[in-house]
Here is the input.
Amino acid sequence: MSFAVKPLHVVLYVVVMAVWALNFPIAKVGLAQLPPLLLMTLRFLLVAAFLLPFVRRPQGQWREVLMISVTLGLLHFSLMFTGLSRLDAAIAAIAIQLQVPFASILAALFLGDRLGWRRALGMAIAFAGVGFIAGEPRLQGQYLAFGFVLAAAAMWSVANLQVKLLGKVDGMMLIAWTAAFAAPQLLIASLLLEDGQLEALAAADWRAFASVAYQAAFVVVLGYGVWYWLLQRYDVNQAMPFTLLVPPFAVAAAILFLDETLTLPMLLGGVMTILGVGIIVLRRPRTTAPETERL
Here is the structure.
């Protein structure tokens, strides 16, 4: 794959994956001080402020983008960050990779995409890997949070299907308007389901707000800006395999910056999950729409 991609662009791909991977431990820093739904509200407000002045409106696609904002912005991100707030970042970074097998299942059910034995094998390996991680002693008492992350992966696959049904779409336009629509939904959800928001904002230090800024400015504006720029130059089957770097980078960052430990079940389960997802991505990279926003 890398032989077809210019060396400088390989570096850009790797940098984007590192930026996305660092979001797991950096988000944990913010979640230590801010409730997850409030944090996501701030993130999406900032993304909308950054991007809306520079993107076109979703002409003729308002309803579709609004529905994506519910599935992706409200449901996926609220489930993901609620789970992440209670789990080790390394565990969440691996478990969320089940979004790719889930996307394969939905593509087969609703788009007539043939699974084939290789992708079926990849799905089985990925699910078995996450099952291995579920046996981690650290997960005792945290299975609900683990379930939130798995539910977030499933909701991402639904959003991925919605994006694929849109056809060719401007990725930055989709992210900007999804953020604009999702922010008020998340604010309402925060007011209904969380408490102490004003106290949390008053008590938060610069690290919490830096976490929000990193997610909006680096993960979305810079990361996805470069990602979409590269997608204009390379085919999806050249781009998608680079996303396999995110989970190992995220695990390494969690160990380095959060002092999380890598146990044998984590290592074996992580390798199995990435291997299974890798089989799917390499076998049929178009299963996942590259325009669908990830963590």
